[in-house]
Amino acid sequence: MIKRYAILGYGASGTMLDVGLMVLGSLLVGLAVAVLLAGFELVNVIPEDLSSGAMLASALVIAVVGLFCLGVASEGPLGRGRRLVGFKIWEVGIGRTLAVFGVGFLAVLAYGFLSRLLDGLPAPLHQATRGLEAVGIAGMTVMPLLGVPLSLLMRWGTGRLSWMPNLDIPVMFVVWAVAAMATIT
User: Fold this and answer.
1) pTM above 0.70, yes or no
2) Using CA of residue 104, residue 110, residue 113, residue 115, what is the dihedral sign?
3) Are 126 and 62 contacting, i.e. CB atoms less than 8 angstroms apart?
4) What does the buried/exposed string (b/e) look like for 81-93 if buried means 16 or more CB atoms within 10 Å of the residue's CB?
5) First and final CA of the chain: distance in angstroms?
6) What are phi and psi of 119, to 5 degrees?
7) Most buried among 27, 78, 91, 118, using CB within 10 Å?
8) In the predicted model, what is the mean pLDDT of the chain?
9) How far is residue 102's CA from residue 16's CA, in Å, rounded to a whole number?
10) Helix 148-156 crosses helix 89-117 at what angle (to 10 degrees)?
11) In whole angstroms, how far apart are CA 79 and each of 3, 8, 159, 167?
């Protein structure tokens, strides 16, 4: 019985970490594009007046970190196609809820550490760390209340429509991404 729940915990934690990394990576790549456009003075998204070099360097750093997050997520349990099969739907729900809260808490802790570490660096890098905080807050608040129940609804739809169980991960990604973007703005 302990082995069964350890497998559930590992699978749920890996899934939530991967979805969280996909959200953070997508958010950072989008921010990098905005900062890059600001560096070429095509848009004005940064309140500070930074040099073009600082903007371009910040965009490069943010893009590399964002793409790294997306790469790690693609190699994790989601990238290997691992699903929580063989567990009751309520077990998956409890496992995912605990896992997403833990991932969100770790993201907020990482934000606290990184925000102090980046003092004196350009504003776009601080905005990128705020993205990490937004992912953490959304993971601890919106995901247990909305994202996980919607994903379970998709898994429950197995007998109804054959394509619904394949939407459980994309639904969590969309809910987490929208909640993180709403948190950061």
Assistant:
1) yes
2) negative
3) no
4) eebbeebeeeebb
5) 44
6) -60, 135
7) 27
8) 87
9) 9
10) 150
11) 23, 18, 25, 15
Structure tokens at 71: 């790469």
Instruction: Classify burial at 74, counting beta carbons within 10 Å of its beta carbon; exposed 0-12, middle 13-18, buried 19 or more.
Output: middle
Tokens of 34: 């905005």
Identity of the amino acid at 99: A
Q: Which two tokens stand for residue 125?
A: 């890098």
pLDDT number for residue 78: 65
- Say how far residue 88 (Cα) sits from the centre of its chain: 25
Query: CA distances (Å), 67 to each of 73, 100, 178, in order?
Result: 10, 22, 19
What count of other Cβ atoms lies within 10 Å of the Cβ of residue 14?
A: 17
Q: What is the pLDDT of residues 94-138, one digit of tens each?
A: 999 999 999 999 999 999 999 999 888 888 899 999 999 999 999
Helices (H), the chain: 2-39, 52-75, 89-117, 123-142, 148-156, 168-184
Contacts of 95 (CB under 8 A, 6+ apart): 8, 9, 11, 12, 84, 87
Amino acid of residue 6? A
Q: Residue type at 25?
A: G
